[in-house]
UniProtKB/TrEMBL annotation:
Residues 50-100 form the Methyltransferase domain. The lineage of its organism: Bacteria, Bacillati, Actinomycetota, Actinomycetes, Pseudonocardiales. InterPro entries: Methyltransf_25, SAM-dependent_MTases_sf. It comes from Amycolatopsis speibonae. Keywords: Methyltransferase, Transferase. This is Methyltransferase domain-containing protein.
Length: 206
């Protein structure tokens, strides 16, 4: 079982950066029912929604319970299994692979910092533009102001031992940097907001 799988099951884990820094991952949030910050994302979805990097499926399942058609996508088989256990639909697939209904999704979620998937936010948002229909939106959770755009090599570390996983590239985007990224793709920033300690933006496809 990987460190990420353990995190999906609620065990403490963190990202170790190549610099030696450590970033704790919000595993309690992943496995809990949606909280107030999550409502910012959920309330913005009124049509078919793709939850990219769905993890154990808290948002995918919450949308389904609201009567919104939703599909989770994750590279972790454990994540997909846990999403199914919540009664929601999910695919074990990379977001850059072929996905159902490309170009016809109304919304996509990049929650919990998933704008960092692949380590290249510009490439990821370009891919989102291929998946979303005209007038659709991408709901993005971001880092606080002042963080800019950062890319680094990271690996997942579990809290139970010293064994780390393989190194991969991840990215972080501060809220002040999202407009510049959006302008280089097919999106514009429709709104930005803060809920407690979390920051969000809605990107609308032209």
């Amino acid at each position: 079982m990987t460190a990420f799988d353990r995190g999906l099951l609620g065990h403490r884990c963190w990202l170790e950066l190549a610099t030696g820094e450590r970033v704790d991952l919000p595993v309690d949030r992943w496995t809990a029912i949606p909280c107030d910050g999550d409502d910012v994302l959920l309330d913005a979805c009124d049509g078919p929604t793709l939850d990219v990097g769905c993890g154990p499926g808290r948002l995918t399942a919450a949308l389904s319970e609201r009567g919104v058609a939703s599909l989770g996508v994750d590279i972790s088989a454990t994540a997909v299994r846990l999403t199914h256990a919540r009664g929601a639909a999910a695919l074990h697939r990379d977001v850059f692979d072929r996905l159902p209904d490309e170009g016809r999704w109304r919304h996509a979620l990049l929650a919990d910092g998933n704008v960092g998937i692949g380590g290249d936010p510009l490439r990821l948002l370009t891919r989102m533009a291929e998946l979303i229909g005209d007038g659709g939106t991408v709901l993005v959770e971001l880092d606080p102001p002042g963080r800019g755009i950062r890319q680094d090599r990271v690996r997942l570390r579990p809290g139970s031992d010293d064994t780390g996983g393989a190194w991969f590239t991840w990215a972080w985007v501060g809220v002040e940097a999202i407009a510049g990224l959006a302008a280089r793709t097919a999106f514009r920033v429709a709104w930005e907001t803060r809920r407690d300690h979390r920051w969000f933006a809605c990107l609308e496809k032209a």
